[in-house]
Amino acid sequence: MNRPALPPLLELARLFLKLGTIGLGGPAAHIALMEDEVVRRRGWLSRERFLDLLGATNLIPGPNSTEMAIHVGQERAGWRGLVVAGASFIAPAFLIVLGCAWAYVRYGRLPAAEGLLHGVKPVIIAVVLQALWSLGRTAARSPTLGTAGLVSLAAAAAGVHELVVIFGAGAILALLAWARTGRANGILAMPAGAGALASAATGAASFGLLPLFLVFLKVGSVLFGSGYVLLAFLRADLVVRRGWLSESQLLDAVAVGQVTPGPVFTTATFVGYVLGGFWGAVVATLGIFLPAFVFVALSGPLVPRIRRSPVAGAFLDGVNVGSIALMALVTAQLARAAVVDGWTAVIAAASAVLLLRFRASPAWLALAGGLLGLVLPR
User: Fold this and answer.
1) Model-level pTM?
2) Which residue of 17, 41, 166, 343 has the fewest CB atoms within a 10 Å radius of its CB?
């Protein structure tokens, strides 16, 4: 007997609370988990639509995986779904990082979880490889797109900036489409500039909750690229310009954001708690994530218009293959840090087989990997 379907908002809350709780491994792993849940398991989105939304997240500032959760919520249940999905994805990480920050302030050190992460990381690599396989086949569906993906991968490996890779692939394919059609059929509309929300940011050095909120609002409004770019922004604002944090405190904050589940941007939660206690954590988290909700709300309705134009659609195809190329490069870099011995190689290979051949649940595999990491020699 089938269970009655849950209301869409409750479905979204349950799914993204789960993903926010188990989502170790950074944005690439989060997107892989979302693809598995909303495309393969639930059929809420086609793979093509999922890729279009993923490409759209690369055209706006902010945390890509959180923006992807917000897009899925908007597709499923409108503006209420947008809020519920995004907040549900962020909430578990906020609470976990808040606990880590409390322990850090109280005891002066971070809780150790090396064994757990030792086993979880190779599972996450397998999850990302599974998503790359399925998304890559859809994104590179023609020889031209496949070639653009390989060129994007080579450019990213050579050190070309992420934005240049993504927009370059899109621009080249748009030009090719324009040459074929002879005219630009439609225009590529873009959301308001990232600086709109940042204009109120203050340069004052004195600490307060409002200046803290404005610092993180600015970062969330202008930050493109990976979570590692966040380190440069926060160092310039919080260490060099304002002197609110030491270098060591900033590195501890970024480490917590990297090793806890959910969005890396919850680094803001840790920093906010260290500087201003519970309410500091709240306002810093609101500041850094608020722009993502605004940008997705503005850009989401434009994606169908972009897809209807041959030239703009080709641009989005290029953004998609460029995004997949960047995801592949990040996965290769992460794999070197995750697969460090024979045991982790076995865990990664077994996880890949279970995912690709038997469609095992990534959540259960991550749990099994973590338990193995606690008992295996290192």
Assistant:
1) 0.65
2) 41
